[in-house]
Specification:
Helices cover 25% and strands 27% of the residues. It is of the alpha/beta class and 428 residues long. Bound molecules: flavin-adenine dinucleotide (FAD). Residues 28-34, 53-56, 63-64, 66-67, 101-102, 128-131, 149-150, 176, 264, 267, 296-297, 313-316, 318, 342-344 line the site of flavin-adenine dinucleotide.
Amino acid sequence: MAGRDHADTEILRERSDLTMASCDYLIVGGGLAAVSAVEGIRREDGDGTIVMLCEEEAPPYHRPPLSKEYLQTPEASRELLHVKPEEWYEQADVQLALGTRATGLDARQRKVHDSDGETWEAERILLATGGRPRRLGVGGESLEGVYMLRSVADSEAIRKAAREAEAAVLVGAGFIGMELAASLRAYDVAPTVVELGERPWPQVLPPALSEFVQAYFEDRGVAFRCEAGVSGLRGEGRVEAVTLDDGTEVPCDMAVVAVGIGPSAELAAEAGLAVHDGIEVDKFGETSHGYIYAAGDVARYPDPVFGDTVRMEHWDHARAHGRAVGRNMAGAKLPYDHVSYFFSDAFDLSFNVFGRPSMADRIVVRGELGAKGSLVFCGHEGRLCAAVLVNENESMDECRELVRRRPSLEEIEEELSDPEADLAGIAG
Ligand SMILES: Cc1cc2nc3c(=O)[nH]c(=O)nc-3n(C[C@H](O)[C@H](O)[C@H](O)COP(=O)(O)OP(=O)(O)OC[C@H]3O[C@@H](n4cnc5c(N)ncnc54)[C@H](O)[C@@H]3O)c2cc1C
């Protein structure tokens, strides 16, 4: 995510430059999966014409800093976020149509209609439309001072509000809510995290780790209200408090709703493609309709490790899936072979997570649980299902391989818990 030198506007090509109404590859979406698909296509096909329709005006950018460094740094510029510099699109020979939304898909004829009234015909189409934050569906969500976080504009609005605010409520203790709470402390805002589950980050952290993280956050000025639903947001024009199910109110001058995302799969659904909490694809990224593919946050794909289908909303998956599917669109036949992984950073804690800790029915801790570097292995029905690394990034490869193999936990438990035992040997 290196810094880039070019202003957003320079990359925006005028509509009049877009003379093609047909192309070999049409990519709908302008995020990491879309850019990664271009890389994949170009690995296999140096000549095919590629057009990318991007609803946002900004060129493709990285989202993880939006809740972390970018949010914490008032002067941080958008160029730091760019996935690729302007000249990359020239070199890859991609036509980037910024500010252009795909409005309709005719799957049988492989045509896409866009918001500028253009109709595109393509040999292969990729849907990489990502997702949108879920709303709570309660009163007061449209009050001034209530935010959601997905885009760079959202992050900038939160950054601006944080400079003036004294107290904030974060609804949802998933990774975005937790990162936001930590980032808001950089502005001396007092955050309260409201969570429906009984502890913070319940989908990812096993209870012992959750407790440690909660105490760590509390020591740094973050309050928690767990097992609490939100029944509404109150205020005269501007938010003044968040009302909980038990009738109590948490006063605030800003609130962020961070309760997950839903896939932006409308185009596919309306075109009759198989959609079930995401666009269903096979191991090559192909949808139920030949020549139409999906990748990244919007796709539901067969997980090679756990054997079911899953939709991942993580940076590493968007990159790897985009690349793999792009190659397949251009004629390769590569099954997606990715061990699910994501990272998160809050305060001075870094988390690297492989597999599915949400399935854990027991854990094995290597070394001491804490900020000095710990490894937590999770088991499900006797087999390893996840590894969570806290402030430890030297064992990433070994943890990935262990989760890929899913060995019997009983057989390796003693070695796993011994910080002196060689992990590489255990990973085999
Ligand atoms: C604040 C934040 C922090 C994050 N932090 C982390 C982290 O620490 N670790 C981690 O692993 N992951 C993190 N993620 C998740 C990660 O950023 C996403 O998984 C990744 O961005 C998904 O990429 P994508 O290309 O599939 O979708 P997106 O990034 O959502 O891109 C899709 C793009 O398609 C556009 N689009 C949608 N519909 C249309 C249409 N009809 N026509 C044209 N364009 C359209 C959208 O406007 C969007 O620009 C974070 C996400 C957010 C929002």
